[in-house]
Amino acid sequence: MRQETAKTKPLYSLAEITTYFLKLGTWGFGGPVALVGYMQRDLVAQKGWLTEDEYKEGLALAQLAPGPLAAQLGIYIGFVHYGLLGATLTGLAFVLPSFIMVVLLGMAYQLYGGLAWMQAVFYGVGAAVIGIISMSAYKLTVKSISKFEVTAIKSKWLLWVFYILGMVITVITEKEEILLFIGCGIIYMVVKAPPKWIKRPSTLSSGILLSTSFWHYDSKTLQEIGWFFAKAGAFVFGSGLAIVPFLHSGVVKEFGWLTETQFVDAVAVAMITPGPVVITVGFIGYLVAGFPGACVAALATFLPCYLFTIALAPSFKRIAKNISIKAFVEGITAAVIGALVGSVVVIAARSIKDIPTALIAIAAIIALIYIKKLQEPYIIAVAAILGLLIKFI
């Protein structure tokens, strides 16, 4: 990151970069990959506000540290020239529009969720979401582990073991084991790039030492929401959809805050709103504990991402070269993506209720494969119409 001096002032003001992220959070559809692409196109290629190196540094940090990819990159970009204040404002501007939208959708969902037409809409939408998540899981697998080719699988065989382990355990237990993810990260780090403190046991000790019911809520529930979503936010690497298995295991299985159908609907809400996919936590929080629950869930989820970014950004060039840290993240990522695939299997088993929902899910996958620039909100809209037609005609 370049240091600012009197001679090298940024080409944009704090107000301009904040306004940009407010607009991106309002109109930016397409998920994390699309959003980071918009940032490169707008801020590097068109406006020239950032250098290519600054953008790449931010993208590398967003991929290396836990946190939803697009939100973390936005926070880093704010930090580049305007430090802590810039990171705070860009992060808030990016998340706030979609947060307001999901709260409003949560209010509508509570008011009209029992009506036949709303149930029909989510009948189709829920099936389409299964297809969308399945396709996203495939893309994440190819991008983060390897292609489905013999030579590639052989070279990354240990990551595939972690991937399959995460998937199988999730399907069997129907919950996610954070200790499994951490264990996979540690094993891969030790095997691929053991850090110096492992090679030199004498330094181990010092290394460790450094190491509409709008206002209806219950204080204990808010505490549970805060702690649960903070853990979820701390273990999301790359795509925001990686948070789905964490949310499903806690929200549906552990706490019983939502039913399977409500959970799929919550993921659908994230698909039809702009900004980061992870903002579905605001919708879930609202259904559980009203507006306070939405605020606590969103804050707890994005706070780890924010803290990691501002903590790592000043010394990131040195950290990024540490191959042990990279190996640790790769191991965790493989297990997390496997868990995402497992959660898709678990959720699909309950959401694909009949032949029409199965066909809608398959159609969503085929559309994403063959229509390259098709965005998820269009699929959701078509699925909603199909749901209405199937139920009422």
Summarize the structure.
The protein is built from 18 helices and two strands. With 393 residues, the chain is mostly helical.
Question: How would you describe this protein?
Answer:
The protein has 393 residues and is mainly alpha-helical. The protein has one domain (100-305, 312-392). Helices cover 78% and strands 1% of the residues. The protein is built from 18 helices and 2 strands. Strands 1-2 form a two-stranded parallel sheet. The longest helix is centred in the first third of the chain and has 44 residues, at 69-112. The protein is globular and about 65 Å long. The termini are far apart. Residues 1-7 and 201-211 have low confidence and may be disordered.
Descriptive key words:
disordered N terminus; 1% strand; 18 helices; 393 residues; mainly alpha; 78% helix; globular
Write the layout of secondary structure elements.
Blueprint (H helix, E strand, L loop, with lengths): L13 H14 L3 H16 L5 H13 L2 E2 H44 L3 H29 L5 H6 L1 H17 L4 H15 L3 H4 L4 H7 L8 H16 L2 E2 L5 H11 L5 H13 L7 H33 L3 H5 L2 H29 L3 H16 L5 H17 L1
Parallel strand pairs: 1-2
Average pLDDT works out at: 82
Order of helices and strands: HHHEHHHHHHHHEHHHHHHH
pLDDT < 50 stretches: 1-7, 201-211
Count of strand segments: 2
Radius of gyration: 21 Å
Strand order of the largest sheet: 1-2
Structural class: mainly alpha
Helix content: over 70%
Distance between the termini: 60 Å
Q: Please, how many helices?
A: 18
- Strand percentage lies at under 5%
* Shape type: globular
Name the assembly state.
Answer: single chain
The domain count comes to 1
Main beta sheet: 2 strands, parallel
